[in-house]
Amino acid sequence: MPRYIYIIIFVDVLTLSLNRTPLSAAVNQLAALRDPAVDGNRQATGYSLLVVIQMISESIRIQWITEYLVENWLTDLTTPGRMIEFETAWRTLSEALIHADQDPAPEAFRLPRDNIFGITNASGLVAVLGILLHRGLPGASGSLRSARAVAGPWDTYPRGRPLVEVLWVRIENIDRENPGDLYGTITVNDALGCHYLYNRDRGSPESIRPGQHASLLDLSRSILASDSFNIALDLKDKDFDPSPDDSIVKETIEWYPNNVRNTWDQPITQRVSGESGWATVEYIVLSNAAQATVQIILINGDKEDPADVYGTITARTGFGEFVIFNRNAGQHVDVSPHASIPIDKSIFAVAVSQHLEIDVDLYDHDDDFSPDDEIAKGIAKFDVDIMKSAAQAITGASGEISVRVTWF
Known about the structure:
DUF6598 domain-containing protein, Ribosome_inactivat_prot, 7 helices, single chain, Ribosome_inactivat_prot_sub1, Immunoglobulin-like, five-stranded antiparallel sheet, 3 domains, 408 residues, alpha+beta, 18 strands, eight-stranded antiparallel sheet
């Protein structure tokens, strides 16, 4: 949502009537206003400001809103939810159109295909947008690269996108229990939808001790930071006695891209609390990044089908380290040749100035008395190459795997 936060305190945007009559009344009310701070004026002033913002400012930014208002100029309708969705995603849509100008190939279209607007090509963006965002990278203080003036054509515009990576969520106090039984949700809402980072119901809590990280879920795509996003935590401790379950964390972290105090390209650590506990969240907002999708393919596991794979796989992005596979011999997983090895995290946000490392140490477990066989041991390093794919082989004494990365 654009930063109407201090107005929305007094008025719900979705209750606004948007047509000729409310606009005329809003302009007249604002023109006659002398002191907006008076309690009796605040709600009326907030309502008038939002009507003017929606019907003039937002209709200039977004062509879809202009067309909607023209079609409903004489109709008494409240603000449609789709209007707010377009406003919330304006920066994201603008950037997708600029990137389409940089690389017009249809297969290089940068908006996720399953986006909530159903937009699948640059023509769809042109039909929606009135004006485009003009974005430079953050300044030298706390950023990877200095700010860049952009005047078009867009060949000098950042090819990456602002992306978010939640590095970890550490439970510090879970109702003073050791261990506690954690359940609840952690969601991230960005311009194009909602992601679940944690989602456990009361019937399947996670046993966790103070100082341990919650087991986060993999995502279907990276979290976008061109527009506002939030991280909402609602975590509880399950009690097995008749007392009510305890709230460990009930808090939302908000991010607005136009806040001049934002920290870019550096990890942000923030405490979040509830009535009976607290946790620490560490995340990073990258100003110019790409999404990496990782797949680990077993090529040869000691010539067995299936191989009994165990060991560790670690991903490093320059700002974070993620253990994406971690099994001992007793927890091995059966994998056939040319099949994927299951990993806990496959989607990563990587700054364009960094690279992605995949560190592999894998073995095949033997049920007889012979030593287990080394499948692959080594590191694959990938430079960011947007809209391209790459693969590297890692071998061991008795096997081979292929690390495949697709950049978006």
